Hints:
This protein is an alpha/beta fold. It has two domains: 3-92 and 175-315, 3-Layer(aba) Sandwich (Rossmann fold); 104-171. The chain has ten helices and twelve strands. It has helices spanning 47-54, 82-88, 110-121, 126-139, 145-148, 158-170, 188-205, 216-222, 240-245, 250-257; strands spanning 3-15, 20-32, 36-40, 63-72, 75-76, 93-96, 176-180, 208-213, 225-230, 233-239, 307-310, 313-315. An eight-stranded mixed β-sheet has the order 6-7-8-3-9-10-12-11, sandwiched between helices. The chain has a four-stranded antiparallel β-sheet with strand order 2-1-4-5, with helices on one face. The chain starts with a strand and ends in a 5-residue tail after the last strand. 40% of the residues are buried.
Amino acid sequence: MEALLKVSNLKTYFSTSSRQVKAVDGVDFEVKKGKVLCIVGESGSGKSMTSLSLMGLVPGPNGRIVEGEVMFDGEDLVKMDEKRLSDLRGNKMAMIFQEPMSALNPLFKIGEQIMEVLMRHRKLSRNEARSKAIAQLRSVGFPQPEMIISSYPHQLSGGMRQRVMIAMMMACEPKLLIADEPTTALDVTIQAQVLDLMRNLKHQTGTAIIFITHDLGVVAEMADDMAVMYAGQIVESGAADVVFDKPLHPYTLALMGSIPSITEDNERLITIPGTVPSAANFPVGCRFAERCSMARGSCHTSMPELRELSPGHFVRCALV
Length: 320
């Protein structure tokens, strides 16, 4: 299937007078048209910075993409000027953030914010944009959208705000939607509703989705393909059912092993010792070696390459 987005050797670094922080360090993956790619990993692995890099939203002035190519629908996002990126954001590409209150303007009513997107990118009149905004809010499950468009963000619950963000981001029917842990702050009932909503919208519009999460349960439910990220790099990627059925990287195995089981009576949860290394001081060899029970001497001195071990299944490990 044709790739809508192809990321090659993406590197996003932050520089200060004394050090260089390699937040994203040579990432490769692709997103197929109409499919869901889940990027999974612990906090500090570089997932969110990868998504901000794709959208051209790397925090400045110290952060920048120093190398790599991001081909989206035939254009390289890395080489685009700000005007062209601005035309794409919210139109062909959209992003949902973990906390919608940080993305919604607290000074403007919900309707005004959705209408602004439609008037800017779709050139609708104010009345047309209002009608479309009401329809969008109804499509994400609001029974009284006319009331919601007259509300301010602080008057809505977290789940309602997240549904508003989905309605806003889907208003222009983007080709690619990036969702950065959109269900983390929600209770399980609302989380299930949001996941169902995103699945339904994908089927209705054909939008491809990058879903960033640390929850492997969400990955199992949402993903067509998945990429496991650790310390700024992809360590394993492939079709979701293949990676779940036959995980090969020790980090992926450890993540799978830490999932609580309802069928086994374990007194303690399995944990991964240690923490993700600092992006300002990555080790020389495999970045998971210090936490890996399988590591050998060469793992600490030589960085393994990301290799294709079976069709479409890539692993960064010298032991497999």
